[in-house]
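Hi support team,

I submitted a single chain yesterday and got back a structure, but I'm not sure I'm reading the token output correctly. Could someone confirm the output below corresponds to the sequence I sent? I've pasted both exactly as they appear in my results page.

Thanks,
R.
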Amino acid sequence: MLQKSAIVVGAGIAGLATARALAVRNYRVTVLEKNWQAMSASVRNFGMILPAAQPEGKLYERAKRSLSIWKAICEEAGIWYEQRGSLHLAYAPDEWQVLKEVREIYHPRGYKLLNSSETAALSPAVKAANLMGSLYSKEELIVDPRKAIAGIADWLSEKYGVEFIWGSTVTAVEHPAVFAGGKKLEADEVYICSGADFETLFPEVYKKLPLTKCKLQMMRLAAQPDGWRLGPVLCSPLSLAHYSSYKAAPSFTALKTRIEREYGEYLKYGIHLLVSQNEKGQLTVGDSHEYGLNPDPFNRQLINDMIITYLNTFAQFRETKIIETWNGVYPKLINGDTDIVLTPQNGVTIINGFGGAGMTLAFALSEDIIAGRTH
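Hi R., thanks for writing in. Yes, this is the structure output for that exact sequence:
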């Protein structure tokens, strides 16, 4: 039986997840990436694999399976990761009520409600003043996306012989042909994983979708001294109004109404705060969410100032120097869906539209797609 071949367009997390799902099934895989290394949303994030943010059902199960794949790859490829879970903080009675309800609703997940002293024992970063408690999830995993994305590409190349052609922009696809950099390549199957680039390949398909782009702003703080560690990922009270998993709580609507009243300016820019820490001890803080098909390329100092102001209400660090700020752009479906899987031509599949949760969901989605076509 002849070995099947596949071309994957894009070396971000969706492209890498698809290349892996193909490679483990003995496909001969070529990945084409327009940049000389992954440069877009897949390296401009917290590095969080965050099942707790996903509602019960398909998305949570997908997040759990992706988490398992992440751990297996990191251990085999020698990619740093830390699985310390997450703390979802409450400083007001309505926030605490939502966390209590979420713990009961998602009882099988094994969440724990912690009081203020128990929370402080898990993370020295949490401010104790007015803290009512937290919801602790043990599942969440952190990688450094800048190193992890590159490390996965190296692992795929070394273990499975996946060929990466960097600096090669795909300008057209006419199955089985793919045109890139003045060359014509062919494969049995082609997968388009091009993230926020709706304009280059199959723009007529994207125009028919309820789709926009989301621009986020983030920052990185200097490495913490003396080996100080954050502990679990910190999820701020504003995150309770952001993630769909919390909508299951009966008290969610009342909480969201209060947050809209008191933090309307923050919600205007889609600000809710998370904090993660990488191997070097640096802290990643963010983020904001601004929507539109033509994102402003310039960062707003106002947003960065608002992020720092709100950060100081619940977190404290030994080193607060900001060493980097950046923005990222990813595709977002405005109808609430979390993935785009389309076949614009026979033999060609678009995989996209994770809405900012690609690190959490991509491995399992690509696994499902490829497994479904090879059985």
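A quick pointer for reading it: The CA atoms of residues 221 and 322 lie 4 Å apart. Let us know if anything else looks off.

Best,
Support desk
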